[in-house]
């Protein structure tokens, strides 16, 4: 089970996921998926690398590795030039200023929150709706070994099968499966993800197993 209270730590891999509020869908049509990924690419790369993802009509999954402490501190200084995260001053919009690690964890949560808020505002305006779109607190679970990394990537890509949207992984267009197998440029950490499986062919075979 994920934990919405688990702190984010630098250089740590996490499974990050969230659901729509109540029974709401967060993606209604093709353009929604593309717009969400566009927002994601704006807010998340400064604080985390992404290895895999899957977007479903009412929820999503991401596998990310948080950046190093040095990279996070640099990001805060660039985004909030008058707020030093290593001082007692707290970056704008962040709470609980005690300790650098806590500040950085709050920064990461804040970035994800900004992503969700940005998407929600556009979504609500387009569909003439009001209120929160996502559950208030998104979940995260840290991972500690290559075996878990492999399992999570397969789990993420198999989600559309699990929820009976498709019969084959490759038939779902809103996941990282195709990008990880493609030779086209990608923002995903494709090389490292495939290394965990021992190469492209092992990646394919692992996804065929139950």
What does this structure look like?
By secondary structure, the protein is an alpha+beta fold. The protein is 44% helix and 14% strand. The chain has seven helices and four strands. The chain has a four-stranded antiparallel sheet. A hairpin with a 2-residue loop joins β2 (48-56) and β3 (59-66). α1 (30-43) packs antiparallel against α3 (100-127). The longest helix has 28 residues, at 100-127. The radius of gyration is 18 Å and the shape is globular.
Task: List its traits.
14% strand, 210 residues, alpha+beta
Quick take:
By secondary structure, the chain is of the alpha+beta class. The chain is 44% helix and 14% strand.
Number of helices: 7
Distance between the termini: 21 Å
Which runs of at least 5 residues are low in confidence (pLDDT < 50)? none
Question: In percent terms, what proportion of residues is strand?
Answer: 5-15%
Strand and helix layout:
Elements: E1 13-19, H1 30-43, E2 48-56, E3 59-66, H2 69-79, H3 100-127, E4 139-143, H4 146-162, H5 177-181, H6 190-197, H7 200-208
Antiparallel strand pairs: 1-3, 1-4, 2-3
């Amino acid at each position: 089970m994920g934990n919405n209270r688990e702190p984010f730590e630098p250089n740590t891999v996490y499974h990050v996921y969230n659901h729509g509020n109540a029974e709401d869908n967060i993606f209604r049509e093709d353009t929604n998926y593309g717009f969400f990924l566009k927002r994601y690419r704006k807010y998340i790369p400064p604080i985390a690398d992404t290895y895999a993802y899957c977007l479903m009509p009412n929820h999503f999954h991401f596998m990310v590795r948080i950046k190093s402490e040095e990279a996070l501190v640099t990001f805060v200084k660039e985004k909030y030039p008058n707020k030093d995260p290593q001082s007692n001053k707290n970056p704008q919009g962040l709470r609980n200023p005690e300790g650098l690690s806590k500040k950085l964890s709050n920064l990461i949560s804040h970035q994800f929150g900004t992503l969700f808020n940005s998407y929600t505002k556009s979504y609500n305006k387009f569909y003439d709706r009001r209120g929160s779109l996502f559950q208030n607190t998104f979940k995260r679970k840290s991972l500690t070994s290559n075996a878990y990394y492999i399992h999570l990537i397969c789990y993420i890509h198999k989600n559309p099968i699990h929820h009976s949207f498709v019969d084959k992984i490759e038939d779902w267009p809103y996941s990282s499966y195709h990008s990880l197998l493609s030779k086209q440029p990608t923002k995903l950490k494709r090389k490292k993800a495939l290394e965990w499986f021992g190469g492209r062919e092992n990646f394919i075979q692992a996804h065929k197993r139950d």
